[in-house]
Amino acid sequence: MGSSAAAYRGNTIKNIFIMSRPPFHIVGIMPFVLGTVMAHRINGVFDLAVFLIALFAVIMIMLLTYYNGEYYDVKEDRLAAALDKNTFSGGSQVIAQNALPKKYARTGSFIALGIAVAAGLLLQFYFKTGIWTIAFGVLGIFLGFFYSNPPFRWVSRGVGEIFIGFCYGWLPVTVAYYIQTQKFNPLVNWVTIPIALTIFNVILINEFPDYTADIQTGKRNIVVRLGVAKSRFIYIASAILTWVFFGVSIYRGAPLISLYCAIPFLLISVFTVLSLLRKNYMEHKKLEMLCGMTIVVNIGISLAYIIGIATGL
């Protein structure tokens, strides 16, 4: 009896961990680290406690977003798994496959929300991180919480991809810089554009394998509205703009070493564009590879900026 209970608890913890999708946190953590590095290199400031508490809040906001997606996208996730399951789409499948009750996702989202709010209050009123701290936190929570939640449900309105670009691009870099310095810096804005464009493409291409499931369940994201064939040109345009604005960010003051570090990832981006032009997205394995490579490009761009700014400013 005792061993069965322990096994049950072990499976529950394991499934909560899977539902939390920790590998996907890196796309939010890296931009936050970048903003912190910029604050240290440009202004010579770094408060470890502020960094850790704020980073924890960022993770909580990502968790509440992921948990709400698990709760509200059960139909889509089940259909996606049945039709064309992709490692990078269809959610974690923990709720969809009944490995955990739905209430775990809902309860988890509210716990994460409460922790994020508490962290924001602590940062602004105890650590005095600036008058915009709470406002930035509320903005991130609002866009994340209602990404899958009604009545807004950004994921179904054709704007979810844009909001993700903002929330995983401009927002974490700017917030990380601001709470350390209580200042804004134009260079922060320039380096966030390529990051925002690449995470936009991550979300966009992850919608390709979910296309049929999303249509059947009434989602109205960009890929459903335009179709896969036309949506690839949105991806291609975003990739090209990434290359352009990376160059602009160097011109505006980002260290040249950032460009050298980014070259492998920009080449991967070129490869994904050529693959889409060849319609490789029509093959399951190749599409899955393209989804993975797009994430690598996003992480790589953030990493290139981190290395370049840490060593070149």
Largest sheet: none
Total count of strands = 0
Helix content: over 70%
Figure out the total of helices. 13
The gyration radius over C-alpha positions equals 20 Å
Q: What would the principal axes of the Cα set say about the shape?
A: globular
Portion of residues in beta strands equals under 5%
The count of domains is 1
What class do helices, strands and sheet pairing give?
A: mainly alpha
Low-confidence stretches: none
Overall pLDDT level: 93
Distance between the termini: 61 Å
Order of helices and strands: HHHHHHHHHHHHH
Summary tags:
single chain; 313 residues; mainly alpha; 13 helices; 76% helix
What does this structure look like?
- It is a single chain.
- The chain is an all-alpha fold and 313 residues long.
- It has 13 helices and no strands.
- Helix 2 (26-43) packs antiparallel against helix 3, helix 2 (26-43) packs antiparallel against helix 8 (186-206) and helix 6 packs antiparallel against helix 7.
- It starts with a helix and ends with a helix.
In short:
By secondary structure, this protein is mainly alpha-helical.
Topology record:
Elements: H1 2-20, H2 26-43, H3 48-72, H4 74-84, H5 102-125, H6 133-145, H7 160-181, H8 186-206, H9 211-216, H10 222-226, H11 228-251, H12 256-277, H13 284-312
Helix pairs in contact: 2-3, 2-7, 2-8, 2-13, 3-5, 3-6, 3-7, 5-6, 6-7, 7-8, 8-11, 8-13, 11-12, 12-13
